[in-house]
Structure formats: structure tokens, C-alpha cells
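Researcher: Re-running this chain for the archive, since the previous output was lost when a drive failed. Same request as before.
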Amino acid sequence: MSIVETEPPETETEAERIARWRLEQLVHAGFEETAAVRLAAEPHVDLHLASNLLRRGCPADTALRILL
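Model: Regenerated C-alpha cells:
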């Protein structure tokens, strides 16, 4: 079972909910879980830019370097 598929704990904080949501969005966009975790942890990373890079054919490892 991946991180994205686990149920959130009942004691999850707002910041943790946001980070989990960001992670889910990045995985849905096409990033592998490891890269998505790194990106989700960085609040300055624009999720729209991240998904657009992949949608336009940018390799995920290149997108990761651009975004971080």
C-alpha cells in the first residue's frame, strides 16, 4: 500500500492535511511517490506548474530539478 492510499489519522493537523492533499495531487499528475513527497513538502512548489510540466512532456526528473 502506498502513502497516498493510506487513511489519514484522526489527529491530523491542518498542515498535515494540506501536505497530504498536495502529495495526492502530485501523484495524480504523474510524479512517482518519492518525487511527489519531496515536492509536496516544499510549500513554494506550484502544483499547477508541476502538473503542466509533465503534461507538456517534461520528464519527471527534469521537472523535479526545475521545481526544487
